[in-house]
């Protein structure tokens, strides 16, 4: 019998591992079966998708090849003179009507001008841009039909072109341009039985979607396949993504049955295990109950006291004794008045005890003053609840007390700080408010906000709709924006905060920035006008310089090619195509030189529009334009004019540009060098038949070797400079028959100067200004 009892006790311990292993094995087998069924279904879906994509790609290829054959035939008829503009318009209109994916069908000349379209002869002189002419350029080069790279039309949709050259007796006459709309090609050429099951799209080499056809009611799945879309090529891919579809009833039904059986088995095992643990758990609860009560009483920071029906103290915890300084034996068994009752609080404490006996306890408890053993007092909050036996009879109360002395002191200090804070907020000129995030209700507003936003009473509950408070994302904690109301511009700064009620709200500060905004707008407008003018002048000078520099190597190439052609005897046997290549080199270099000459003539400098003006007015206008930049960077800008009257034949706009550029360069040089107390002085003087201007700064001056390269094109000491500003300034001065230069000042800094002849004065020799007249 002892052996039998021992085996009965060991049986559950051996049973649980075996049952667990069996359940794990069953679960693995069921999961493997479900996975195999799902994998077979997915493979079948992938194979079907690949077949449909290949069929669609072949169908589109045949469709485009048919269009190419038709365009080749039309090109040959036009080159042979069999088709005129009227017949071309008739055929184009018919073909566009029969093929809705086509956008345009037109004949283009060698000068990129559209000659014929579906309406006949085009007389508006429309020319194709470089993107639209790409396919025609390739077709002319290859002398066969070619496709162009995809591009985006004016409607925002992507297209590609098919170009067929017009060739008569080996000479290129132009070409036929057929433009396709990628969206239209998918819309009209993808069959419904493919589009109803798949999301069809055309991607470029970077993965960007150029066209697509899909059912908005369906959701794309994770089964896809893509293949090259050629023609037109250029890295285009045809991609199909199957819509999400169910697995049928086999796998869900099988999975449901398996889950139900598995849950049933788990429930049975759980019930058996629960029944075996109930006995052990019951035996432990009784021992834990006693230790748990003691641990709870000793771990609580609040004082606990059990009071009998007559008010006597039955039990106290350690926190209660530590709070008052009495030992447990000094309190247990004592009747009212208790030793921790102050003499002046006996009546209040007796009333509180009577209220507890009559079940008239306040919801917030009782706020009472007690006395410690050492004689000082403390303020506590007391809550009491009846002690009821199992038979329902009451045998006393248990009360919990919290020391709120420090909390009460902090609350008083917080109230005082709150009053000080409100005093500061109410004295601010800026408007401050708090708005509920969800409803937009105004929770707080200072008088400045009420006056600025015309709320009326700042303490009245109302709904204020401030712009931008609900526009941010969920994670957007900060934000600011400008609000224009009539003639005023307000700056609204906002921040997401947690209000005193625990709800999310917006803290908004509104400031009147009308004057600052107007000043910034004026400065920005002046800066933009200056940048636009400088950019246009710089680009013209750059184009002229490049045309001049490229002209010589192109002339050399043409000379060398012509020389080689003359030195080759006619009777000398050369490989096929060598003589033609030499002639082509000479011809192409000549053509490139003509293009460069055209560009140079286009940007060629013209004589300025001279008029007789007083230079003092020009200087004053340039100074007004430069003052905002100097003030922004903290540079002192001064004018020391020569007040003797004079007149100069000049273009005022160009001379203003020269002065503004020199002053801007001086300010930027001072800022970059970090000069203390930076200043720029503008001097003017008249003498020896000339009017002279000097721009003097107190910066570091010109470095060694820098002065020789100042007027070299594209040489600049600025990291972002283009090196063409001073070169343009010198060119403008030379147009006015003047002189331009720069020197380092002996006192430190740099002096940029230029001089212009006075109206009616005779020009002297080439001696230079510095030899004729001292500096200003």
TrEMBL record:
It catalyses: ATP + protein L-histidine = ADP + protein N-phospho-L-histidine. InterPro entries: HATPase_C_sf, HATPase_dom, His_kinase_dom, HisK_dim/P_dom, HisK_dim/P_sf, PAC, PAS, PAS-assoc_C. It comes from Chromobacterium amazonense. This is histidine kinase. The keyword Hydrolase does not apply. SUPFAM superfamilies: ATPase domain of HSP90 chaperone/DNA topoisomerase II/histidine kinase, Homodimeric domain of signal transducing histidine kinase, PYP-like sensor domain (PAS domain). Residues 288-334 form the PAS domain. The keyword Disulfide bond does not apply. It is an enzyme of class 2 (transferase).
């Amino acid at each position: 019998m002892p052996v039998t009892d021992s085996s009965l006790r060991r049986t559950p311990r051996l049973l649980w591992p075996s049952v667990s292993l069996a359940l794990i094995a069953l679960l693995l087998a069921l999961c493997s079966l479900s996975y195999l069924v799902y994998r077979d279904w997915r493979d079948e879906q992938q194979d079907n998708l690949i077949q449909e994509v290949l069929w669609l790609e072949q169908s589109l290829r045949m469709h485009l090849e048919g269009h190419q054959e038709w365009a080749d035939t039309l090109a040959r008829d036009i080159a042979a003179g069999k088709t005129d503009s009227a017949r071309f318009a008739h055929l184009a209109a018919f073909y566009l009507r029969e093929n809705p994916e086509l956008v345009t069908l037109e004949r283009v000349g060698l000068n990129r001008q559209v000659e014929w379209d579906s309406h006949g002869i085009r007389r508006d002189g429309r020319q194709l841009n470089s993107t639209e002419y790409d396919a025609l350029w390739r077709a002319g080069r290859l002398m066969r039909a070619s496709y162009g790279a995809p591009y985006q039309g004016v409607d925002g949709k992507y297209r590609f072109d098919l170009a067929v050259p017009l060739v008569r007796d080996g000479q290129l006459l132009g070409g036929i341009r057929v433009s396709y709309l990628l969206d239209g090609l998918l819309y009209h050429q993808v069959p419904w039985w493919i589009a109803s099951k798949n999301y069809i799209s055309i991607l470029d080499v970077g993965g960007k979607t150029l066209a697509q056809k899909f059912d908005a009611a369906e959701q794309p799945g994770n089964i896809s396949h893509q293949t090259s879309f050629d023609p037109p090529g250029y890295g285009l891919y045809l991609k199909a993504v199957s819509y999400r579809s169910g697995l049928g009833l086999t796998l869900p039904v099988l999975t449901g049955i398996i889950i139900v059986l598995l849950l049933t088995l788990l429930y049975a095992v759980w019930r058996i295990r629960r029944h075996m643990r109930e006995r052990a758990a019951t035996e432990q609860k009784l021992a834990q109950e006693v230790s748990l009560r003691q641990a709870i009483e000793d771990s609580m920071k609040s004082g606990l006291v059990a009071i009998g029906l007559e008010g006597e103290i039955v039990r106290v915890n350690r926190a209660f004794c530590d709070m008052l300084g009495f030992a447990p034996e000094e309190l247990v068994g004592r009747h009212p008045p208790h030793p921790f009752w102050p003499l002046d609080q006996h009546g209040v404490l007796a009333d509180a005890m009577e209220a507890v006996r009559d079940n008239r306890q306040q919801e917030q408890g009782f706020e009472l003053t007690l006395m410690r053993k050492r004689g000082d007092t403390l303020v506590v909050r007391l809550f009491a609840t009846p002690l009821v036996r199992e038979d329902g009879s009451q045998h006393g109360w248990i009360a919990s007390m919290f020391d709120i002395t420090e909390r009460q002191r902090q609350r008083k200090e917080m109230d005082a700080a709150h009053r000080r804070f409100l005093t500061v907020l109410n004295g601010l000129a800026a408007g401050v408010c708090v708005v509920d995030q969800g409803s937009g209700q105004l929770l707080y507003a200072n008088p400045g906000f009420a006056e600025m936003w015309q709320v009326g009473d700042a303490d009245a509950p109302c709904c204020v709709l401030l712009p931008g408070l609900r526009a941010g994302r969920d994670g957007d904690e900060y934000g600011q924006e400008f609000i224009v109301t009539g003639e005023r511009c307000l700056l609204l700064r906002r921040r997401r905060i947690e209000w005193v009620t625990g709800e999310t709200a917006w803290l908004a500060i509104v400031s009147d920035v009308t004057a600052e905004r107007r000043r910034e707008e004026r400065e920005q407008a002046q800066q933009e006008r200056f940048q636009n003018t400088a950019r246009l002048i710089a680009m013209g000078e750059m184009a002229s310089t490049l045309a001049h520099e490229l002209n010589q190597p192109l002339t050399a190439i043409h000379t060398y090619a012509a020389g080689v052609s003359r030195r080759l005897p006619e009777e000398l046997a050369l490989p096929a195509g060598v003589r033609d290549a030499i002639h082509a080199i000479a011809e192409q270099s000549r053509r490139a030189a003509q293009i460069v000459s055209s560009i140079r003539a286009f940007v060629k400098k013209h004589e300025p529009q001279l008029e007789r003006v007083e230079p003092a007015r020009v200087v004053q206008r340039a100074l007004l334009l430069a003052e905002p930049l100097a003030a922004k960077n903290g540079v002192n800008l001064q004018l020391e004019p020569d007040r003797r009257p004079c007149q100069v034949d000049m273009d005022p706009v160009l001379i203003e540009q020269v002065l503004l550029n020199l002053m801007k360069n001086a300010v930027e040089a001072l800022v970059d060098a970090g000069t203390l107390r930076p200043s720029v002085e503008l001097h003017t003087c008249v003498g020896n038949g000339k009017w002279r201007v000097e721009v003097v700064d107190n910066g570091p001056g010109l470095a060694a070797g820098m002065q020789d390269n100042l007027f070299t094109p594209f040489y600049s000491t600025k990291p972002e400079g283009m090196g063409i500003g001073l070169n343009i300034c010198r060119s403008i001065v030379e147009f006015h028959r003047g002189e331009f230069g720069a020197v380092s000042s002996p006192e430190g800094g740099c002096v940029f100067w230029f001089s212009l002849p006075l109206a009616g004065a005779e020009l002297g020799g080439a001696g230079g200004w510095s030899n004729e007249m001292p500096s200003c």
